[in-house]
Amino acid sequence: MKIPNGMTQEEVLEIINKICDRYAYKFKFGYFEPEDIHQEAFIIALDALDRYEEGRPLENFLAVHVKNRLNNFKRDKYYRQNKNNDDKQERLNNSKKFLMEPLDISNIRDEAEKNMRLNDNFIDEIANQELLEIIDEHLDTALRADYLRVRHGAYVPKPRREQISSEIIRILEEYGHEER
User: Fold this and answer.
1) Best label site of 35, 70, 81, 125, fewest CB within 10 Å?
2) Would the pTM of this model clear 0.85, i.e. be above it?
C-alpha cells in the first residue's frame, strides 16, 4: 500500500473506510450485501493508491475512483432482462439470474405440489385454447380489434361488448360443436 506524503497509514485507512461506508449501502444489490460491497470498495481503494498523484485531495480521488469502479462492478454482475434474441447474451443473463436468485431447496416440494395443481387445470386450458382458436378463426374482422381489447382487459363500451358477446355465442353454437 502506497501511503501519500504527509499522511500516516491510520489516516489513509480512515479515509478509505469512510468512503467504503458511504458506498456500501448505495451499491448493494442482488446477493451482494453491504459488507460485500464494503470489501470490494476497500480492495478497489487500495489498488487506486498506486495511481494517486500528490497535490490532489486523497478523499476526492478515492471517492471518484471507487464510485466509478463500483458502477462497473454492479453493471458487470447485475442481471438485466434481455430484449433481443441473442443466444449468447441470453445464456449470460440466465447465468447471472440464477446467481441473483438462488433456488431455496426447502421450497422444492412446495413448487412441485404447485406444479401438480397447475397440471390439473391443463385439460381446461386446452379446451379454452380450442375455443379461442374457433372464435379467432370465425370472428368478423369489424369486431376483431374490440374483441382483442376485451380479451386483454382494456375498456370497450358496453354496447360494443354486448355485440361481441352475442357474436361469440353465435360462433360457438354454430362452429363449436362441429369442430369437436
Assistant:
1) 81
2) no
